[in-house]
Amino acid sequence: MIKRWAYLLLMILFSSCHSYTAISSTSLEDIANGNCTIIDLTYPLNRTNAYWPAPSYAPFTYKTIATLKDDGVFSGAYSTPEHLGTHIDAPNHFEENQPSVDKLSLETLIGPATVIDISDKVENQSDYELTVADIIDWEEVNGRIKNRSIILLNTGWWKKWDDYEKYKNVDHTKTLHFPGYSAEAAVFLVEKRDINGIGIDTLSADCGISADFKVHHIINKSCKYILENIANLDKLPPSGATLIIAPIKIEGGSGGQTRIWAILPPP
Ligand SMILES: [Zn+2]
Fold first, then answer.
1. Among 70, 153, 154, 248, which is 20 to 30 Å from 241 by CA?
2. How confident is the model at residue 6 (pLDDT cuts 50, 70, 90)?
3. What span, in angstroms and rounded, lies between the C-alpha atoms of 197 and 152?
4. How far is CA 14 from the centre of its chain?
5. Ligand 1 geometric centre to CA of 88 (Å)
6. CA 235, CA 44: separation in Å to the nearest integer?
7. Are 183 and 221 in contact (CB under 8 A)?
8. How far is the CA of 70 from the centre of ligand 1 (A)?
9. Catalytic residue among 93, 172, 216, 217
10. Residues 67-110: tens digit of each pLDDT
11. Quick check: 118 and 85 in contact, CB under 8 A?
């Protein structure tokens, strides 16, 4: 009789665990079987892509070097700054003795997505910076930020992506204006939470008016990366998606073009 009760108890425990897994997480089997929606957070590379607007930076170029008609094979060659389009800033971008893009640990390039939407606050304040209070507010609704998260900031700035001038938003003093993270929020994320990296739908994790790039220093100094010019953040839930981040492997590079996939849990 005791054995029968123990068996029933085990069955109940197993079935409740199983249903929890199916509802709230994504297995490799789910992905392999095509049960998950996968959202591309990457803009296609072309000559209109936004890049960091400083001397020596330049637009993406592509030229055809062989055609099917003339050569029997289609092939092209391209050039681009590392910090153009959807890309990653490796920890060596702003700090000495930190890994280059080819040395990023693969384990940190996969993790849960935490999507914080501040687009309503940015609407009338282009220079808005994410605050610690914004993060706490997010956690009150969605629960504590999961360990190994990649924080993705949806500022709504992605709506300007197709117009580089509006996206840079330079004023008459040549100052850029777009939203970003505050230094306090960056310190909070690296010290009080367990994150793999951060990302944003603008040219920089520091807001446009920043002259000291504090957020870059804070994040890179703690050996973490930054994703910039991310697409499709409005298509993600606040939590539940899993990110796969695949940067170009430039030996010794400070960053580079990066394909980013968000895998939504099966329905
Ligand atoms: Zn960058």
1. 248
2. very low
3. 9
4. 35
5. 6
6. 17
7. no
8. 38
9. 93
10. 999 999 999 999 999 999 999 999 999 999 999 999 999 999 99
11. no
Distance (angstroms) between ligand 1 centre and the Cα of 242 equals 22
For residue 42, give Cα distances in angstroms to 39, 115, 199, 231.
Answer: 9, 16, 12, 5
CATH for 38-53+82-263, among 3.30.499.10, 1.10.287.470, 3.50.30.50, 1.10.10.10? 3.50.30.50
Q: What residue type is 237 in one-letter code? A: P
Q: What is the pLDDT of residue 260?
A: 98
How many CB atoms lie under 10 A from the CB of residue 247?
Answer: 23
pLDDT digits (tens, 9 = 90+) for 102-155: 999 999 999 999 999 999 999 999 999 999 999 999 999 999 999 999 999 999
Task: Name the DSSP class of 145.
Answer: P
Phi and psi at residue 184, in whole multiples of 5°? -65, -40
By the CB criterion, residues less than 5 angstroms from ion ligand 1 are 83, 89, 228
Between the CA atoms of 98, 104, 109 and 111, what dihedral angle is there, to the nearest 10 degrees?
Answer: -50
Cβ distance 88 to 109 under 8 Å? no
Residue 115 contacts residue 239 (beta carbons within 8 Å): yes
Annotated active-site residue 93? The verdict is yes
Question: What do you get for the CA distance between the two ends of the chain, in Å?
Answer: 39
Centre of ligand 1 to C-alpha 95, Å, is: 13
Predicted structure pTM score: 0.90
Task: Find the largest Cα–Cα distance for the chain.
Answer: 84
How many A from CA of 83 to the centre of ligand 1? 4
Q: For residue 73, how far is its CA from the centre of ligand 1 (angstroms)?
A: 34
Report the amino acid identity of residue 50: A
